Amino acid sequence: MIAYGCLGILLLFIVSKIAVYFNRQKKAPTPEDLDETLLTISNPRGEHTS
Prior knowledge:
By secondary structure, this protein is mainly α. The chain is 74% helix and 0% strand. The chain is built from two helices and no strands. The longest helix has 25 residues, at 2-26.
């Protein structure tokens, strides 16, 4: 019985980790967003060269 309880807790832990992973993956910035952020950081006065 204790083994089933441990397996249940392990299953809940795995499901929660998968849910967090997919939630973060949906909110990940696109490569274009990252490029724009890097441009903003490297040129703080707005002097974009592109």
